[in-house]
Design goal:
heterodimer, A: about 110 residues, seven-stranded mixed β-sheet, four-stranded antiparallel β-sheet, B: about 120 residues, mainly beta, globular
């Protein structure tokens, strides 16, 4: 089974900050890596697929990179609506999937 | 627009059964794989099960294999999850999610609002 880890587990940041979240797979998953955003009491929302492609309607301040085992999600200028929990998900082992444990981004 | 509406959650005793349903609308239901994903209170996301677009293939997380059964009714555009031998650790908000293939990667592009299952005596 492929295990996913994320770091940090939480971070505090200010509006306008640039932040980076890291996701690591226990073995190579090529670029089969997605990112989701979840706000409290809401369903997850897809942000990035294929490690670096922006889902339709997602602001361009979000970007993803990486391949193999190491991936990053970057928010170039944090906005008030970006405070949320972010999850990575591997789809390399489709039809079986694994999510990372999540990274909570809150206001400093 | 795409809508996924889950129902069927509630409080159930350990060892008992429960059926969840997800009503889909706004897209060609028979063209897409569909998933169940759960989230225990205050915890992260856990993929539970998937059913292929044509209903031929079903796959489960190890944590539910042999206890849960996923099914779909194309005529009613519904996705079901039959949960047997429920355990306290099955307590979670259960989401149904629509799958889409993007550049060979599979993404969950639409999610329902979830239905809460509490397993407790």
């Amino acid at each position: 089974d492929i295990q996913m880890t994320q770091s940090p587990s939480s971070l505090s940041a200010s509006v306008g900050d640039r932040i980076t979240i890291t996701c690591r797979a226990s073995q190579s998953i090529n670029n089969y890596l997605n990112w989701y955003q979840q706000k409290p009491g809401k369903a997850p929302k897809p942000l990035i697929y294929g490690a670096s492609s922006l889902q339709s309607g997602v602001p361009s301040r979000f970007s993803g990179s990486g391949s193999g085992t190491d991936f990053t999600l970057t928010i170039s200028s944090l906005q008030p609506e970006d405070f949320a929990t972010y999850y990575c998900q591997q789809s390399y082992t489709t039809p079986l999937f694994t999510f990372g444990p999540g990274t909570k981004v809150d206001i400093k | 627009q795409v809508q996924l509406v889950e129902s069927g959650g509630g409080v159930v005793q350990p060892g008992r059964s429960l059926r969840l349903s997800c009503a889909a609308s706004g897209f060609a239901f028979s063209d897409y794989d569909m998933h169940w994903v759960r989230q225990a209170p205050g915890k992260g996301l856990e993929w539970v099960a998937v059913m292929s677009y044509d209903g031929r293939n079903k796959y489960y997380a190890d944590s539910v294999k042999g206890r849960f059964t996923i099914s779909r009714d194309i005529s009613r555009n519904t996705l079901d999850l039959y949960m047997n031998s429920l355990r306290p650790e099955d307590t979670a908000l259960y989401y149904c999610a629509k799958d889409v293939e993007r550049e060979l990667s599979h993404l969950f592009d639409y999610w329902g609002q979830g239905t809460l299952v509490t397993v407790s005596s």
